[in-house]
Amino acid sequence: MCRGSRLNRQPIAKISVGASGSVGLILAAPGEQCREQDGDQPPAGRVNAAEEASKAKDWPRAAELWEELRHEFPGHSRYWGKAGEACCEAGLIDAAEQLLAEALTLFPNDPWVRYFYATVARRRKDWPAYLSRAERLRDDFPDLPLGWAEVADALSALGRRQEAKALRAATALRFPDEFWPNFWAAWEDAQSADAAGAVEVWSRLLDRFPGQTSVVGALEEARTAAASPQPTGRGIAGAAPVMSIDDGEYRCPTDLADTEILPKRVIVLGSCLSSAWPAVIEDRFSGCVAEHFLINNAAQLPVDPPSPAATYDFQLIQIPLRQLLNEHTYFGLPYSDPTAFERLFDAVCGRLTDMLHDLMRWNQAHGVLTFVCNFLVPQQNPMGRLLPRYDLRNFVYFIEKLNEALGGELQQYENAYLFDFDQIVSTYGRRYLQDDAVWTISHGSALADTDFEQDTGRLEPLERVSRYYPLATHKLIHCACTELVAMVRTIRQADMVKLVLVDLDDTMWRGVAAEEAEASSMSREGWPLGLAEALLFLKKRGILLGIVSKNDEDRARAIWQRIYGNLIPLEVFAVRKINWQPKADNIEAILREMNLLPKSVLFIDDNPVERAAVKAAFPDIRVLGPNPYLWRRILLWAPETQVAAITTESAARTEMVQKQVERETQRKKLSREDFLASLEVTARLGEIASTVDGRFARALELINKTNQFNTTGKRWTQQEFAAFFREGGRCFVLDVTDRFTAYGIVGVLLVAGNQIAQFVMSCRVVGMDVEIAAVAGVLQAMTARGAREIHASLVHTSAN
After folding, report:
1. Does residue 742 sit in helix, strand or coil?
2. pLDDT by residue (tens digit) across 339-373?
3. How far is the C-alpha of 294 from the C-alpha of 317, rounded, in Å?
4. Alpha helix ranges (H) inside 210-329
């Protein structure tokens, strides 16, 4: 085990039920048989398992596996290096440093141990140490391109840009047949060239290294930039250099992401439009295996996917429009007969229902998470821009309505979501992808140069179509892949924000409203009102809102009333700390009152001193500032603030928390016994038998959002839950009401055989002793089915 790590996933306790129904909790001693036995696996199988964990970037698991191999086979330098890499990537920097320093003394001639040792300094952002270690790697192993590249990166990190550029050029000359040294040298040249020069740089590199997707993408971006008008103008004197938002970040901000989720295996089912996706996915996500199943000719799906269904993170289905709307079905329709177009639309919708049913085979049989692309809407009405817009004879409207019908059809399937590819393409520019400027509407695909060879014999020579219509296909698919993973992050509830805390002055309104008379509704116009609206959307998603402001509360309330009036009442904020106390102290009180961890909170404040103080007090808290132009986009579009479904409990979360605060105030006035007696608590235990149960969405939400009262920390996918039910697993849910409010479903207990596999409970009912009733009810249900010795898993995590 890495020093200082918490990677042990073995159960450390079990519950036993005696013949009389008495319950006992037995703690497992180190090495006791409460642990699951690993068995004698051959080294090759264990190495493969460690490799898979590293490829999947499951770093805690990888660290555990490589560490075991290192301990048992200490003579293998590779196990030392990989263990160090995994510990470093898992955030166990000190453990990685110590481990790799020891490995260097044992294996001084292993370049990979020295490389991983250098990356630890890079991860620490200790740039002088990074440069020193990288130089040692280069000097000891001069024939390894990696050492030269690391030195260049270290020089760049230290601000020695010209030295880094010169070294990258020299490295490319030293290793002319190695791709990556030449790629980074070309990148340096492209950065210092104009748009046309960048196109030339990347074109030359693509000639030398044909088919390299990284070069293809860079070339497409350069061509797009060369075809776009260049901005002019000057910035504000004294302002810091401004970096525009990257296209890959624009729709899916990563500002709130703390952990990385990368797909391990996906499959794309579709026509030629999606044939390039697997290569882009594999290039975009290291270690991912992406498969493609072509359905151009209405191929029948086999019973099972090519790989075991449980290994897929998701499948992406792209239905060929041409199979629903063939040119033979509409070429001859007269414009004077609108009913003919209505009949055509009904027929297309019928074909869509049937085809979707066939393509959802693996989703229905195995519960595979599924995204279904909608159709690309034509760029213009082919009948002309002056004719009626919202008319089925306009194929722009026709395809829009077809997309609406597709969304309705998907509502009938579990674990399936619409992938709005049309909206993504619209964001980044239809003209850089769609083919309806050349092809038929029914083709509905991406423009490409694939047919050029058939046109080389014309009387007047043509250039490739991409010379007339600049394409950015590779870039758009990259952006679409980013969107897919953002959706996966939301579905898995990775790094979810549960509470947003905001300042008031220069945050909820412009400037510092020192006096009530200075405030008016004009102070909210522009980005402040956009922020306020975004916060209201978050509340509707189930995210809690709070105010932390250094102010006189009465004065702040009066200013709020003048600025927002009845448009946004202060009561939408579940908690408000408006006083002259340090903000870190106020946030500490809020965390205690609401029983939340700092990592679940986002703090927005215009003052860098306040942000730094809060961050110092709570390193895991996320902060936003100082740019108010970015806040709304991040709040609304980041996957960490989005939800896959809105349950009854999440919609009423603010009101419930306000009642919880009222309840906790009452607790302070009474003894524990009197307090519990006064609550008039009612706890009901129910059972969910499948994912179609109406309560399942809330159970899945709760089990994936709960950190503290969570006996294992395991996160579940809907696909895993479906398999759990098929294998006989049982899911019990706890519903609680007291005299203050109805809390809804606040607990989930999972039972597999004679084991309580996991128990999670919302912090809103902690201290009400309802967990005792929940466990008692589950034990009764288990013993009714013949269980006598009942075990329970308890796994330590950093949060529970």
Report:
1. strand
2. 999 999 999 999 999 999 999 999 999 999 999 99
3. 10
4. 213-227, 247-250, 277-284
278, 290 contact by CB (below 8 A):
yes
State the DSSP H helix or E strand holding residue 709, giving kind and residue range, or none if neither: none
Domain spans of the chain? 41-226, 265-450+468-491, 495-643, 671-792
**Side chain identity at 357, as an amino acid letter?**
H
Distance CA 402, CA 469 (A): 27
What is each CA distance from 120 to 24, 70, 93, 133, 709, in whole angstroms? 46, 19, 7, 10, 34
Q: What is the CATH number of domain 671-792?
A: 3.40.630.30
CATH code of the domain occupying 265-450+468-491: 3.40.50.1110
Q: Tokens 């990074």 map to which residue?
A: 130
Condensed to tens digits (0 to 9), the pLDDT of residues 47-88 reads 888 888 888 888 888 888 998 888 888 888 999 999 999 988
Q: Is the fold of 265-450+468-491 the same as that of 495-643?
A: yes
Q: Which helix (H) or strand (E) holds 683?
A: strand 682-688
Calpha distance 141→670 (Å, rounded): 72
**CATH 3.40.50.1000: does it fit domain 495-643?**
yes
CA dihedral of 500, 503, 504, 509, whole degrees rounded to 10: -70
Q: Which of 658, 608, 619 is nearest to 506 (CA)?
A: 608
Task: Identify the architecture of domain 41-226 in CATH.
Answer: Alpha Horseshoe (1.25)
pLDDT at 61: 87
Report the SS3 class of residue 690: coil
Helices (H), 73-212: 77-89, 93-106, 111-124, 127-140, 145-157, 161-174, 179-192, 195-208
C-alpha closest to that of 216 among 571, 399, 427, 473: 473
Buried b (16+ CB within 10 A) or exposed e, 358-391: ebbbbbeebbbbbbbbbbbbbeebeeeeeeeeee
Q: Which amino acid is at 546?
A: G
pLDDT in tens, 251-293: 999 999 998 888 999 999 998 778 888 888 887 888 889 999 9
Query: The whole model's pTM is what?
Result: 0.66
722 contacts 688 by C-beta, under 8 angstroms: no
Asked whether the beta carbons of 3 and 94 are under 8 A apart, the reply is: yes
Report the pLDDT value the prediction gives residue 242, as an integer from 0 to 100: 59
